[in-house]
Amino acid sequence: MQRNTCLKAILSLALLLSWGPGAGLVTAQNRDWLVVESVSPPQTIPVRTPRGAYTAVFQSGAQVFPDGIARGTLHLQPLGVDPDDPNIVYIGGTADFARDGSVKRVVLRGRTAAGALVIVVATPVPSEECVVYDLVGPGVRASWEAQGRITVVRR
Prior knowledge:
Shape: globular
Number of strands: 9
Helix content: 10-25%
């Protein structure tokens, strides 16, 4: 089941990336929310890629607004590499909601320090303070799980 979820995320991300840098994301139709926050504190995590796995220091903080604007950063630094500025600065995003009003996933558009467009999908794991992250960009595909939470601030 994890593999099917990952394949669906990759397909969704490929479609989002095919829009090009000028296209905006469609925001969720559920308009009773003010902001969705996705936060993962600094931690050491295993990262999976098509070429293998590595251990990295990770943290992320994002705010997504109903108009498609997003703010925040993502740091993903392999162990043993000197830390630098944020790897990704979020520039846009959307939140998908379940029928019960909980967040199914947060899709974030960001730019790397080199200017490449990337997509980060943050999916909460029900009943755990855990978020599954999938990252897709030019020449990059990775996924990992991290402690964190996704919360909704409503009107």
